[in-house]
Structure formats: C-alpha cells, structure tokens
Specification:
By secondary structure, the protein is mostly helical. The chain has three helices and no strands.
Length: 103
C-alpha cells in the first residue's frame, strides 16, 4: 500500500454527522392532530385548541419544507379536529336547547 511519501491518515473516530432535527414541528402537528381528533369527540374545546395549534405547527413546518407526508397528515388531522370540535359544540348547544324546552 503506497502512501506517496506521506504518513497514513490517523484512524481516529470523527464527530457524528450533523442532523437537521427539524421534524419536531411535523411530529408536533401530527400528534396534536391525532389528540384533537380523539379528544374532540368527548371534549370539543380541547379538540379545537389542539387542532388550531397543530394546524399552525403544520403550516410552519410546511413552509420550512420538512417531511411532507408527516406535515400533510398533521394538517389534515388538525383540520378534522377543528371540524369535530365545532360540530361537538353545535350538538351540545342543540342538546341543551332541547333539554330546556322539555322542562
């Protein structure tokens, strides 16, 4: 093995490669979307809040060009959570109105 007159390169371990670490927004959007959909069936306000925050995180992550599949899933689930929360509030209002009329 020829080294062309130069000593061989040292075999020291290098630093770990730098990672982007920017998928946190995408993961946050996805998690909040899932939580908003699941909890939105039982507590409408929590579903709406989780959906709005998840939607905002998803939009920010999409503008940064992060993992497109995860971001898109987070945005869609967050929008669904908002809709489920709004429907839940409307149904609760109708139910309370019907109960008040029956008394």
């Amino acid at each position: 093995m020829s080294t062309n007159g130069f000593p061989p390169a040292p075999n020291s371990p290098g630093a770990a490669p730098a990672t982007n670490g920017g998928n946190g927004l995408a993961v946050g959007s996805l998690v909040l979307g899932i939580v908003g959909v699941v909890v939105g069936f039982f507590v409408a306000f929590v579903g709406i809040i989780a959906g709005v925050v998840g939607l905002i995180l998803g939009i920010i992550a999409r503008r940064r060009g992060l993992n497109r599949g995860m971001v898109l899933a987070g945005i869609i689930l967050s929008a669904i959570a908002i809709v489920i929360g709004i429907i839940g509030i409307i149904l609760a209002g109708v139910l309370v109105s019907q109960m008040m009329q029956n008394q």
